[in-house]
Each structure stands twice: as C-alpha cells, then as structure tokens.
Write a structure and sequence with these properties.
The chain has 267 residues and is α+β, with helices and mostly antiparallel strands. It has a single domain, classed as 4-Layer Sandwich (Deoxyribonuclease I, Chain A), CATH 3.60.10. 25% of the residues lie in helices and 24% in strands. The chain contains 7 helices and 12 strands. A 6-stranded mixed sheet has the order 3-4-2-1-12-11. A 6-stranded mixed sheet has the order 5-6-7-8-10-9. Belongs to the DNA repair enzymes AP/ExoA family. Pfam families: Exo_endo_phos.
Length: 267
C-alpha cells in the first residue's frame, strides 16, 4: 500500500505544469491532495475523470481557496468530508475515505499569520482537530482499522524541519505553541510521523520551498507535509520519502509529493 500526499498549489495550474503526467506515472494506491482551489465543475477533465482513480473532492465554500481531495485506486467503502466541526466542515480542509482495514485522510491545516485573525483561526482549528485525531484513532482501533492522516500541516515540528529555523521562531509555522501542539499529536494522540521515523537525524527532507529567490536550488525549505500514521501501520512502513523534482523547471507546485510505502500489515 503506497500513499502519497501533495499540496498542488492550485490544481488547474498544476495540471498545466506536469501534475497530470505525474498522476499517470505514480505507483501510489492513494493520493491525498491539498489546496486544490477549484469547484468540482472547474476541475480539468483529465483530473476530474482520471483513468483508474476514484476521487472524493472537498472544495471550500469560499471560492478559490483551500480544497482537499483523496484519490484511490480502490473504490472507498465510505467517505467523509469534514470532521464534525461547525466552523470548519465547509472550509475544504479535511476529507477521509475508508478502505479495507484502513482510513486515509487528507488535511490542509490553516497556515496562520501572527497577530491576525488567521492565526486565531488556526488555533481554533488545531484545538478541534486534536480531539478529532484522538477520536478517529480510538474508533479505528475499536474496529480493527489503521489510520493515516496525510497533508499540509503548516507546522515545522523541529529545528531539523526547516532550513532557517533561527529566523522563523516568531513566525507562523514554527511558533513554540504550534510545535507543542504537533508534539501532542504524536505523544498524546499516538500518531507516528513516518517520514521522520525513517530519517531520524536528517535535516529535512523538506517538502516545501518558496518560489522567491533560489530557495529550491539552495534546498532552503520547510518540512510541513506529513503522513501521520497509527502505530501498527507505521510499523509496517518500509520507505518514506519526498519526491523532490530534479530541477526548478520541473516543479508543478511549491510543494513536492511525500510518499510512504506500507507493508502487508496495512491490510
């Protein structure tokens, strides 16, 4: 079972720059997308009707913003948009599918901005979502299921997760309280960051690079795209890596796909 997550930074733009070709060539069984930024009717036909895929699209009520999706080779047994939040369920930030023995979710956590309403929104989302993560894993365990929540979490957890951490300690995405929240996802809710588990001492591997300057060429990035798995599922993970493009010209998003390979224990 191969699961990939990627923030496409606008599916219509990405489709013109290489996403369609990437989707046709990927060996993933499930692909989670974030920042789709399109209503279902606005999706390019080759994306909306991609051969061999079953898709759940969750656009935001606010047009041109957010939007997530889950694409799977196997038809889902059940699907869900939102996580039971009165404030956030129509914001295009969460969708999940159930496959045999496995729940896969796509998350686009708000990015926030210090000193603004956007940061307050992010904090409200985080508070509600931690409760959901805990409940989701408990329900799955009761049903004998495993869970992986994939997506753009918009938080770098550790100093090794962004190149210029010293300059970003007071910026959204690397605030002490955001990092502490992500620690709670791991320690209290009991999820495993599978990429970090496979690269415990590495700087990065980064999954997002600003389009400004030469951030990509200098590998001056952030690791904010995670696959957070339940322990038993994480124990079957044999590989976890970032699909970093070979060159700046080959990028179709400012994020790169992040992929994990899970073994037979996932089924």
């Amino acid at each position: 079972m191969i699961v990939t997550t990627v923030n496409v930074n606008g599916i219509r733009a990405a489709a013109k720059k290489g996403f369609v070709e990437w989707l046709a060539s990927t060996s993933a069984d499930v692909v989670c997308l974030q920042e789709v930024r399109a209503e279902t009717a606005q999706l390019p036909a080759e994306v909306r009707d991609a051969a061999g895929w079953h898709a759940v699209w969750a656009p935001a009520a606010a047009k041109g913003r957010a939007g997530v999706a889950v694409l799977s080779r196997t038809a889902p047994q059940a699907t869900r948009i939102g996580f039971g939040s009165a404030e956030f369920d129509d914001s295009g930030r969460y969708a999940e599918i159930e496959l045999p023995g496995l729940t896969v979710a796509s998350l686009y956590l708000p990015s926030g901005e210090v000193g603004t309403d956007r940061q307050d929104e992010k904090e409200r989302f985080m508070a509600e979502f931690l409760t959901h993560l805990t409940d989701l894993k408990a329900r799955a365990a009761a049903d004998g299921r495993e869970v992986v929540v994939c997506g753009d979490w918009n938080i770098a957890h550790r100093e090794a997760d962004l190149k210029n951490w010293k300059a970003n300690q007071k910026n959204a995405g690397f605030l002490p309280e955001e990092r502490a929240w992500l620690t709670r996802v791991l320690d209290e809710a009991g999820y495993v960051d599978v990429v970090r588990a496979h690269h415990p001492e590495q700087e990065g591997p980064y999954s997002w690079w600003s389009y400004r300057g030469r951030a990509f060429d200098n590998d001056s990035g952030w690791r904010i795209d995670y696959l957070m798995a339940s322990q038993k599922l994480a124990d079957t993970c044999t590989e976890a890596y970032v699909e970093r493009p070979a060159s700046h010209a080959e990028r179709w998003s400012d994020h790169a796909p992040v992929t994990a390979v899970f073994g037979t224990g996932a089924h």
